[in-house]
């Protein structure tokens, strides 16, 4: 509705430089989910998944900045980073939180950073899973680096980073800084689901 569109327009969650947007991809996204600021040279998006969906898949580094706390609905779509995308996700001191399915699924290259002074930005999975179906903050099939900030799972059978094997090999996880943690029973900071 018009009211919903107006509310969305007032609450962007992420921004990315205009020159890192694939205009063909952008054309497939509803206009209520983004706004272009010509003066600043940024696109502002009202959902993180729409922001990443619009980013070019040319292997060039793309910086995405989170601009406020994001409390995702448990039914919200997974934030998908596809092969060819090279994303640096700057939490900027904010929290991305979900109590449900996977928050981020990475098949490309993803670096988590936090350039805020206190570096308290967090990707937090609250969901309670099972031994067969763990609730994941990040499902990694590509290359994932945590440089600063926090990735955590707080529910039983949760997993901060769930690293899996694909047809082309096992995902790569590098922790250079920050915090990767799990705080409940039967949960993992990093779980490597690989036959190798």
Walkthrough of the structure:
The protein is mostly beta strands. 9% of the residues lie in helices and 43% in strands. It has three helices and 19 strands. The strands form three sheets. It has an eight-stranded mixed β-sheet. Strands 6, 9, 12, 15, 16 and 19 form a six-stranded mixed β-sheet that branches. It has a five-stranded parallel β-sheet with strand order 5-8-11-14-18, with no helix packed on it. Strand 2 (34-37) and strand 3 form a beta hairpin. The N and C termini lie far apart (51 Å).
Element order, helices and strands? Answer: HEHEEHEEEEEEEEEEEEEEEE
Cross-sheet strand order for the largest sheet: 2-3-1-4-7-10-13-17
The largest pleated sheet is described as:
8 strands, mixed
What helical percentage do the residues reach? under 10%
Mean pLDDT: 92
Low-confidence stretches: 1-9
Number of strands: 19
Structural class: mainly beta
Question: How would you summarize this macromolecular structure in one to three sentences?
Answer:
9% of the residues lie in helices and 43% in strands. The chain has 196 residues and is mainly beta.
Please give the structural blueprint.
Blueprint: H1 2-9, E1 14-17, H2 23-26, E2 34-37, E3 42-45, H3 48-53, E4 61-66, E5 70-72, E6 79-81, E7 86-90, E8 95-98, E9 104-106, E10 109-113, E11 122-125, E12 135-140, E13 143-146, E14 150-153, E15 158-166, E16 169-170, E17 172-175, E18 179-182, E19 188-193
Parallel strand pairs: 4-7, 5-8, 6-9, 7-10, 8-11, 9-12, 10-13, 11-14, 12-15, 13-17, 14-18, 15-19
Antiparallel strand pairs: 1-3, 1-4, 2-3, 15-16
């Amino acid at each position: 509705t018009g009211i919903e569109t107006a509310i969305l327009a007032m609450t962007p969650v992420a921004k990315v430089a205009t020159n890192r947007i694939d205009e063909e991809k952008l054309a497939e996204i509803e206009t209520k989910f983004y706004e272009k600021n010509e003066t600043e040279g940024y696109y502002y998006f009202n959902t993180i998944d729409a922001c990443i969906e619009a980013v070019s898949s040319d292997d060039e580094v793309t910086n995405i900045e989170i601009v406020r706390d994001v409390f995702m609905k448990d039914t919200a779509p997974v934030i998908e980073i596809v092969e060819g995308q090279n994303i640096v996700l700057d939490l900027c001191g904010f929290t991305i939180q979900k109590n449900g399915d996977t928050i981020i699924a990475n098949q490309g290259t993803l670096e988590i950073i936090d350039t805020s002074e206190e570096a308290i930005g967090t990707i937090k999975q609250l969901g309670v899973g099972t031994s067969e179906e763990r609730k994941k903050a990040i499902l990694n099939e590509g290359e994932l680096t945590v440089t600063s900030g926090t990735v955590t799972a707080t529910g039983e059978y949760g997993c901060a980073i769930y690293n899996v094997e694909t047809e082309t090999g096992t995902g790569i996880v590098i922790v250079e800084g920050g915090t990767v943690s799990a705080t409940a029973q039967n949960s993992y900071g990093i779980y490597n689901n690989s036959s190798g």
